Amino acid sequence: MRGLGGWWLFVAFLALAGWLVFGWLAHGHAPVPARAAPSLRLEAAAGDTVAPAAPTQPPLAGSATAASVVASVSSDDASLVSVPWAQATSEATGIGYRALLGYAGASLAMASRQPSCHLGWTTLAALGAVESGHGTHAGSSVDADGVVRPGIYGPLLDGTALDAFADTDGGRWDGNAQWDRAVGPLQFIPSTWQRWGADGNGDGINDPQQVDDAALATGLYLCYSGDLSAAGTWQSAIFSYNHLESYVDAVAGRANAYAAQVD
After folding, report:
1. How far apart, in whole angstroms, are the C-alpha atoms of residue 132 and residue 20?
2. How many CB atoms lie within 10 A of CB 50?
3. Is the bond preceding residue 31 a cis peptide, omega within 30 degrees?
4. Range in 15-29, 65-79, 97-111, 172-186 the model is least confident about
5. Which of 22, 74, 224, 233 qualifies as a FRET site for 214, CA 20 to 30 Å off?
6. Could you give the CA distance from residue 78 to residue 94 in angstroms, rounded to a whole number?
7. By its UniProt entry, which InterPro entries does this protein fall under (predicted)?
8. Is 224 contained in some domain?
């Protein structure tokens, strides 16, 4: 694994052609796990299972209003975010600017859509770091339009090394009509994307390879669990994303680190 500052996560086994992404089983329908996750071991700092405190919401862009946040269901969530804040935060954290706009925009949109959820941008950013290095896995990058190019795909879930997931999308999202596999910067499997997929950039398409769409879908998925400011709820929500306690540790540690970097 690699990522910003060097990923401090150690995988004890399961290296498929150099691909080491934690979200391979990516997210059955919350809150009930769809399948058992592969047995990975990740190194995390002690105590990281405490849910991170929700950071202050990113400031709105100068032209954005409360009404525009409400309307963001069908508009570009990234445009809600203050550009100076995003530039400064990207520099402080090392998160790519365009990926950060996706996380922060989704956080602002969810604050309007489900204010009782209290989803922090740092949680989304932590997931993006752990799942794909913010869309940079294997040489990919997030383009100005928010699309990850080349697209990010996990290994086929054909039962060889992981549980078998027969195709559910005809290859539409994952490019394979026989087996499913996780896709995009936040690593959704197609069956989960079909339920939670969202349009965060207002182009009328729910695309798991587009960071605004993927971040908003992740927000909807996590907020299904309830109030994420409650430690137990936050932990359950992250565990539902990937069914490993060590994964929860990893995400919590990363979220706390990002929060500390912008204090």
Report:
1. 9
2. 12
3. yes
4. 15-29
5. 233
6. 18
7. Lysozyme-like_dom_sf, MltB-like, SLT_2
8. yes
Quote the CA–CA distance of 165 and 92 in Å, as a whole number. 39
Residues 45, 224, 193, 124, CA torsion sign: negative
Residue 99 and residue 81 in contact, taking contact as beta carbons nearer than 8 Å? no
Distance between CA atoms of residues 244 and 249, nearest Å = 9
Structure tokens at 129: 């770091």
Buried b / exposed e over 74-96, threshold 16 CB at 10 Å, is ebbbbbbbbeebbeebbeebebb
Per-residue pLDDT reduced to its tens digit, 57-78: 888 887 555 545 554 444 799 9
Contact between 206 and 143 under an 8 Å Cβ cutoff? The reply is no
Tell me which residue of 240, 241, 229 sits closest to 57, measured CA to CA.
229
Domain that holds residue 85: 71-261
Average pLDDT score over the chain? 82
Is the residue at 45 inside a domain?
A: no
- Asked, for residue 197, whether it belongs to a domain, the answer is yes
Is the distance from CB of 118 to CB of 227 less than 8 angstroms?
yes
Total Cβ atoms within 10 A of residue 131: 30
Phi-psi region of 118 (alpha: psi -120 to 50; beta: other; left: phi over 0): left
Tokens representing 134? Answer: 């913010």
Task: Give me the phi and psi of 197, to 5 degrees please.
Answer: -50, 140
